[in-house]
Every structure is written in C-alpha cells, then in structure tokens.
C-alpha cells in the first residue's frame, strides 16, 4: 500500500486489531461495474488468525469480518460488514484500505453470534 488509491479486499477485526488482505483497484477488471478481490476468508484465515493472535483452529466466521469492494460507476467504495462491526471500527477499516469516498452496508453473510444463528433458523 504505497499510494493513496483505494484498495479492495477482506478483513477481520478482533480486540481492536485488524487483519487486512488488500490489493489495488483495477477498474479494467470490474464485473458489472464492481471491482472485488479474489481473496477468500477461508483461504486467508490461517494467516489472519496469526496476525490477530488467535488459534488457527478457531472458525474464521466467528470473528467479525467483511469485504471492501469498489464501484466503478461512482468511484465509491463499499465496506460490507456484519453486526460485530461498530461505526468507529468502520472508520479504522476505511483508513487501512485508504478509502476517502465510501459507505458501509450490513451483509447477512458477515453476521456473528446469535444473529447468525437466527439467520439459519
């Protein structure tokens, strides 16, 4: 992350620490006007757990996490997150991904705790 351009990727947030897997936006790779990374939470979990000082045997989906994408049409980023992410942590995530023009959206896929249990009932 050597410049101030927005990044895309995935993240986890635990105990005030962020594990971030980010890459630069490449507008030529937009699909339906959206740039997304190929990072997958399950594939990156081992490294993320180490960064967060968590056991790698812990389930990756039990830790607040999300994704950052970029919309080519309006040059705006979106932070997808679940119920475990507070507004102040969204600001921290935006900073790590070098976002200046962004919005946050709750996504059921990233829910944790009782909220995810209710989703599957």
Cα(first) to Cα(last) distance is 41 Å
The helix-strand sequence is: EEEHEEHEH
Structural class: alpha+beta
Q: Could you tell me the radius of gyration in angstroms?
A: 14 Å
Gross morphology is globular
Number of strands: 6
Number of H- or I-type helical stretches? 3
Q: What's the overall average pLDDT, rounded?
A: 93
* Poorly predicted tracts of residues: none
Helix content: 10-25%
Strand count, sense and barrel status of the largest sheet are: 6 strands, mixed
**How large a portion of the residues is in β-strands, by DSSP E?**
25-35%
Number of domains: 1
Describe the structure.
By secondary structure, the protein is α+β, with helices and mostly antiparallel strands. The protein has one domain. It has three helices and six strands. Strands 1, 2, 3, 4, 5 and 6 form a six-stranded mixed β-sheet that branches. A hairpin with a 4-residue loop joins strand 4 and strand 5. It is globular. The chain starts with 6 loop residues before the first strand and ends with a helix. The relative contact order is 0.22. The mean pLDDT is 93.
Set out the fold topology:
Blueprint: E1 7-14, E2 17-24, E3 34-35, H1 41-51, E4 65-71, E5 76-81, H2 87-96, E6 102-106, H3 114-120
Characteristic key phrases:
single chain, 121 residues, alpha+beta, 6-stranded mixed β-sheet, 23% helix, 30% strand, globular
